[in-house]
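Report of the visiting student (M.T.), summer placement. My assignment was to run the structure pipeline on a short list of targets and document each run. The first record concerns Purine nucleoside phosphorylase DeoD-type.
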Amino acid sequence: MSMTPTAHNGAKQGEIAKTVLMPGDPLRAKYIAETYLENPVLVTSVRNMFGYTGTYKGREISVMGGGMGMPSVGIYTYELFHFYGVEQIIRIGSAGALQDGVKLMDVVIGMGACTDSNYAYQYGLPGTFAPIADYGLLAKAVDTANAQGTHVVVGNILSSDIFYNADTTVNDKWRSMGVLAVEMEAAALYMNAAAAGKKALCMLTISDLIYGEEKLSAEERQLGFGKMMEIALEL
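After the run finished, the structure tokens were exported:
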């Protein structure tokens, strides 16, 4: 039997921790591992999607990129849950703010993830599934943020399949329902976790304002999410 269970991940059995932090950008995964983890080891680089395992305060943690969009994160998280024995995945990403009260660099925690994706079709459910975070992870994240003095906003986010939407009114519609911010991965992560009986949480740093002019550069997105990381590492 092969020691590498999938074609998308070069890690051998036992090389990935039970807890995985998952940014979208593989270079952000590299930065996180080299900045925060002790003795990080590169365990996979298939398709340049870097994954590292190291320790933080004596606890083994892995950090691995998940790519852009639900098809990408859906593959990686499914394989981590089912083939590598991962118990919890914490997405740490960026998002565009939809509400005026959500500011640049704010940390948003996705209690639920609305979506325009058809990802749930595969489950054959007789209705609409509501993808939600693991409450234990969510509560601990909020408590950790409070202890660290970091302001977080908790609520509904949108996981969209579409970055350049031909419908120019779509953001207004989600905004009118109180959705805090838009990203592209959390709903698939939450559904994969639910189907596998595992835990998941999505934390986001606001990188741009959908109804404003401010936005972070690509380098700032890669390097500037320290507050969110300090929360995630304690989970």
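The first helix runs from residue 26 to 36. The chain has a mean pLDDT of 95. I thank the supervising group for their guidance throughout the placement.
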